[in-house]
């Protein structure tokens, strides 16, 4: 019998790639603001805006074995240009909506289940213009470690912290070949991340292959967070 996995987000970007991989071996439930992009994905869709809605639990199974929260934002501006509304909006999308959703589904998470959240390499590596996103994603890392401690050994909680990945969300940063080359050269592995790089890590963390891992922040970042080659 296939295990039940709930994904928040999945209609585009990294979440969509994760859904395409997981639908093969799992019973997938995807909650997102639109069904566009999910036409060829074998999953039950739930119309859901993480910043506004409560989950319709009648559309969920009685048991969940995995949970992946994909929504995120990239607001890269000098701090002096960041209004408080931007900080509040990023916290609402990246952190508070995650906490609220976790509260809603925690009663149906089963023994041995796995949760995956997303952070950013900018939390561990100070980067200019990342104050808002790093602040809200940093909250996720602290929350995940505390949650992992509180619910061990029943539920595993891990975080994936990517560097720059080629997605619609990062299109402005990769809008021409010069920008792409410059961004690639910043990473020791000399390339920009692909959606499959992150999706493969998520597939591992949601599975029993990672059953001895919890409370971890996994850098899938081309080496930029830990090594320097020039």
Describe what this molecule looks like in 3D.
The protein has 230 residues and is an alpha/beta fold. Helix content is 32%, strand content 19%. It has a seven-stranded parallel beta sheet with strand order 3-2-1-4-5-6-7, sandwiched between helices. Helix 1 links the parallel strand 1 and strand 2. It starts with a strand and ends in a 10-residue tail after the last strand.
SSE string, helix = H, strand = E? Answer: EHEEEHEHEHHE
Q: Can you name the CATH architecture?
A: 3-Layer(aba) Sandwich
- Cross-sheet strand order for the largest sheet: 3-2-1-4-5-6-7
State the major sheet. 7 strands, parallel
Q: Write the CATH homologous superfamily.
A: NAD(P)-binding Rossmann-like Domain
Q: What is the strand content?
A: 15-25%
GO molecular function: oxidoreductase activity
Protein name: NAD(P)-dependent dehydrogenase (Short-subunit alcohol dehydrogenase family)
Keywords: Oxidoreductase
Family: Belongs to the short-chain dehydrogenases/reductases (SDR) family.
Short description:
This protein is α/β, with parallel strands linked by helices. The protein has helices spanning 13-22, 84-105, 131-151, 177-185, 195-206, and strands at residues 4-8, 27-32, 43-47, 64-69, 109-118, 155-162, 217-220.
Topology:
Layout: E1 4-8, H1 13-22, E2 27-32, E3 43-47, E4 64-69, H2 84-105, E5 109-118, H3 131-151, E6 155-162, H4 177-185, H5 195-206, E7 217-220
Parallel strand pairs: 1-2, 1-4, 2-3, 4-5, 5-6, 6-7
Helix pairs in contact: 1-5, 2-3
Defining key terms:
single chain, 230 residues, alpha/beta, Rossmann fold, 7-stranded parallel beta sheet, 5 helices, 7 strands, 19% strand, SDR_DHRS6-like, NAD(P)-bd_dom_sf
